[in-house]
TrEMBL record:
It comes from the Bacteria. InterPro entries: RibonucZ/Hydroxyglut_hydro. This is Ribonuclease BN (tRNA processing enzyme). It comes from Mangrovibacter plantisponsor. PANTHER family: ZINC PHOSPHODIESTERASE ELAC PROTEIN 1 (PTHR46018). One of its GO terms (molecular function) is 3'-tRNA processing endoribonuclease activity. It holds the Pfam family Anti-Pycsar_Apyc1.
Length: 254
């Protein structure tokens, strides 16, 4: 299973694509996690085939995590995608996605491929993958996700500070992506992660590799410097590639 970091940026980053990853397994099944406004361009730059992505999972529907959906669907429609698409999202947040699907080919309603919107559950199976979700501490409900396949586990936090539930999903993962907006500590009831708390969690769980993302532009240099000194922490970057079988080996940029 390979992880392609499409973007690691915060909501209004001047330098980085909005946070999203693409997951590709050995059978070439592909998931996209989140689709912010600059994510479609990252896919086009990689020349990802219009039929390649099977599923889009939304951690939550803040604009920097979902506002690219209409554009991506419009692109797929314009170039004749035929593969059915599944979208997983919390049931209470699906209306926003329905509106984006309506925008994708407005005023027409049809696309060239069917879309199935499914409710993300605490746990379910997808092909050979075991999926689990848990809620982080964020402004609106935001789901972290753990995907287990081929004896490896990927964790992706979505937005928000870790909770007991997301820490339980993160424990024992091969590769954990954790939202870390701030270099300086934030209040315990804040809506985003911070470096001191991420460092403490990485050490508490004895993680193999915690990759920090969604950092504020101004905070990246300090976080990068600190991560460079820690064997189990890394600052994410647009275009970084991870192989879940060898997560600690730095892959060349896409
Ligand atoms: Zn958010």
């Amino acid at each position: 299973m390979k992880i392609d970091v499409l973007g690691c940026g915060s909501a209004f980053s001047l330098n980085h694509t909005t946070s999203a990853i693409r997951i590709i397994d050995d059978q070439q099944s592909q998931w996209l996690i989140d689709c912010g406004p600059t994510v479609p361009r990252a896919l086009w730059n990689r020349e990802v085939d219009i039929n390649a992505i099977d599923v889009i999972f939304f951690t939550h529907i803040h604009p920097d995590h979902c506002a690219g959906l209409a554009v991506l669907l419009n692109h797929w429609k314009s170039f004749g995608r035929v593969k059915p698409l599944q979208i997983y999202c919390q049931p209470e947040q699906q209306t926003v996605l329905v509106n984006q699907i309506a925008l994708a080919n407005w005023p027409y309603t049809g696309l060239t491929f069917p879309i199935e919107i499914l409710a993300s559950q605490p746990t379910w199976r997808w092909r050979g993958w075991q999926i689990q979700t848990a809620f982080a501490q964020h402004e609106i409900p935001s789901q972290a996700i753990r995907i287990e396949a081929d004896n490896h586990a990927l964790f992706y936090s979505g937005d928000g500070r870790p909770t007991d539930a997301t820490q339980a999903l993160m424990a024992g993962s091969t590769l954990a992506f954790q939202e870390c907006a701030s270099w300086l500590p934030l209040a315990a009831d804040a809506s985003h992660g911070d470096y001191p708390a991420c460092l403490a969690l990485c050490e508490k769980l004895a993680l193999n590799l915690m990759v920090l993302y969604h950092c504020q532009d101004a905070d990246r240099p300090a976080i990068a410097q600190a991560c460079a000194l820690h064997p189990h922490l890394r600052l994410s970057d647009d275009g970084a590639m991870f192989d879940l079988a060898r997560p600690n080996r730095l892959q060349t940029a896409w």
